[in-house]
Description:
Layout: H1 3-16, H2 20-50, H3 56-83, H4 92-98, H5 111-140, H6 143-164
Helix pairs in contact: 2-3, 2-4, 2-5, 3-6, 5-6
The protein binds fe (ii) ion.
Amino acid sequence: MSKSNGEKTQGIQINQELTDKRQRGMLKILNILLADETVLYNRLRNYHWNVRGINFYTLHTAFEDQFNKIADMTDEVAECIRQYGAYVPGTMNEFIQKAHLSEVPGVYPDAETMVANLVTDHELIIHFLHGDIETIDHKSKDVGVADLLVRLLQQHEKMAWMLRMFLKVHPTADKE
Ligand SMILES: [Fe+2]
């Protein structure tokens, strides 16, 4: 057997070592994450369309930049779910049911409140990602998925920081 075939066989064996229960747990984490990313994606689009005030263009552009990044991240999460053989829950109803984040229909906050709301969303996703990474690291032991979540965490941290810098006062904007 060639070396590359040996590595392939070993990879399959390692994946098979994931018990059904552990794999279901991992898929549940990915499904909820996908739902949270989708709610945040939609909030960013909503704010991109509805932001107003003297900083309109800067925020309109910043929100677009973030929803484009999140669209790519969401796609990675969804395709990761498919790689494990499960269908992706891809309807708005399922996203709303599964997400930690919630929608607030019919409300159009001022620009500063929009930014603060988005910081809170990023921080919430960061909080859950920390727990998810630990769970996957200890239970599923799937390094590939843990790595994907770490990359997502880093991107959310950077996006949260960029938005915090728009705020005059925010609890986590500056540490004295
Ligand atoms: Fe646009």
